[in-house]
TrEMBL record:
It comes from Sphingomonas glacialis. Coiled coil: none annotated. GO terms for molecular function: catalytic activity; iron-sulfur cluster binding; metal ion binding. PANTHER family: ENDONUCLEASE/EXONUCLEASE/PHOSPHATASE FAMILY DOMAIN-CONTAINING PROTEIN 1, TYPE II SECRETION SYSTEM PROTEIN K. InterPro entries: Aldolase_TIM, DNA_rSAM_put, Endo/Exo/Phosphatase_dom_1, rSAM, rSAM_sf, RuvA_2-like. SUPFAM superfamilies: Radical SAM enzymes (SSF102114), RuvA domain 2-like (SSF47781). Keywords: Iron, Iron-sulfur, Metal-binding, S-adenosyl-L-methionine. The keyword Iron-sulfur applies. This is Putative DNA modification/repair radical SAM protein. Its cofactor is [4Fe-4S] cluster.
């Protein structure tokens, strides 16, 4: 590793960081250097690692590992101790210089820094804190910083990380304790959740202090997030959704990210030979969205899954799957139904429902009015009643699913 230059290290450690999905920068405190003081800002820039905030804004981060060497031997990790990959390691000073250099070239708006564990958890955490502290205190860097913390590290080190970073994240890795024990025996679900609990407490305490004292320091103002690997163990979609809901409730997470397992070179025999369909990851994100913004409970999402396998259907989204299973809840009257019922209608989003509630205060809505608020009125028609529409024939159809399911089309590379 000592013979590698910074460019070679960057090639290795940026590639090694690609498996971490939790790098969105939403929720950060607004900071700029337009007054001529400091370096950087949290405003949008052009970038290297593209992620998307909940409002659809494209953000860019320098996303790297401090090192891809690790003392742990987690079966699913390409950087595990027994993996035959080329190793590299940045010094804290090199990460600082890279971040500032990329920012000054307008390539990035912030830093996402994770790491394998070298020496010990505390030593690794010290190095990551050293990077964040140097950026903030030595260079007055005002851009976004996201640090992936290490659960086994001393709580004081994690606290120091939160004082300099906008967001902290701690990966739960796998949705079940059995899966974690089998695939990452050196990690402990209890220690991971304990660290998440400590971070939540620190965020709440400093938030309360900030309300009383303007000079109180901020602690991870963009909150904390986590990530789960999908498809590396036998966990069903129902298991994953239930775990995610528990994490949101217990630790006040901003996001739970899902990363489809990807086969790695020289893989352990206990891992599956093929990756799960990427559509499965997509359906889990849609389920997550339903629980966060559409008032669905974990039980509702689990009910949309196949009763035998516990898996969500891949050909239709979870909201439509739920509606087809509970057709007794439909159709709903677009001119009378409460917000909660309208949010259950497939094809109607939060903005569309808000627009419907505002418009119907002044006049009765027709199907054409609803059609202007949705991408596919064909998907909506069987599930609602409008002033000029009542789905009598559609509501009674036994074969409704083929009618509302999206049509599969072969894409053409050179289509006109």
């Amino acid at each position: 590793m000592a013979q590698l230059d910074v460019q070679q290290k960057l090639a290795i450690l940026a590639d090694a960081a690609k498996y971490d999905a939790s790098c969105a920068s939403s929720g950060s405190v607004k900071r700029t250097s337009r007054d001529g003081k400091g370096v950087g800002s949290t405003d949008q820039g052009m970038g290297i690692c593209h992620a998307y905030a909940p409002d659809g804004r494209c953000i860019s981060l320098l996303k790297i590992l401090l090192t891809n060497s690790c003392i742990f031997d987690c079966h699913y990790c390409i950087n595990r101790k027994s993996s035959n990959v080329r190793r590299a390691r940045f010094t804290a000073a090199e990460v600082v210089r890279l971040t500032l250099s990329f920012y000054r070239r307008n390539y990035i708006e912030g830093l996402f820094l994770s790491s394998g564990i070298i020496g010990s958890s505390n030593y690794t955490m010290e190095q990551m804190v050293k990077v964040a502290r140097s950026l903030r205190e030595d260079h007055d860097f005002r851009g976004y910083i996201h640090l992936k913390t290490i659960p086994d590290a001393d709580p004081e080190l994690v606290h120091q990380a939160g004082l300099h970073a906008d967001r902290l994240s701690i990966n739960v890795e796998l949705p079940t304790v059995a899966g974690l024990t089998r695939l990452a025996p050196e990690k402990s679900a209890a220690r991971i959740e304990g660290a998440m609990g400590d971070t939540k407490t620190a965020i709440l305490d400093t938030g309360d202090a900030k309300k009383r004292f303007k000079s109180a320091p901020r602690f991870a103002p963009a909150g904390q997030s986590t990530q789960m690997i999908v498809g590396a163990d036998a966990a069903t979609d129902g298991d994953i959704v239930t775990k995610a809901s528990t994490l949101y409730d217990r630790f006040g997470l901003r996001r739970v990210y899902y990363s489809a397992f990807s086969p790695i070179p020289d893989a352990s025999a206990v891992l599956p030979l093929q990756r799960p369909p990427l559509m499965r990851e997509h359906r889990l994100y849609q389920s997550d969205w339903l629980m966060r913004f559409y008032d669905y409970t974990p039980a509702d999402v689990v009910a949309a899954a196949d009763a035998t396998t516990g898996m969500l259907p891949l050909d239709i989204d979870p909201k439509l799957a739920w509606a087809l299973k509970f057709r007794g809840s439909f159709p709903v009257d677009v001119n009378r139904a409460p917000r909660e019922a309208l949010l259950r209608v497939p094809g109607l989003g939060v903005k569309a429902v808000t627009a419907i509630l505002a418009a119907r205060r002044w006049r009765r809505l027709h199907l054409a009015d609803v059609a202007r608020l949705t991408v596919s009125v064909a998907k909506v028609r069987p599930f609602l009643i409008a002033e000029d529409w009542r789905p009598v024939a559609l509501s009674d159809r036994a074969d409704l699913r083929p009618v509302v399911a999206p049509k599969i089309q072969q894409l053409e590379l050179f289509a006109a």
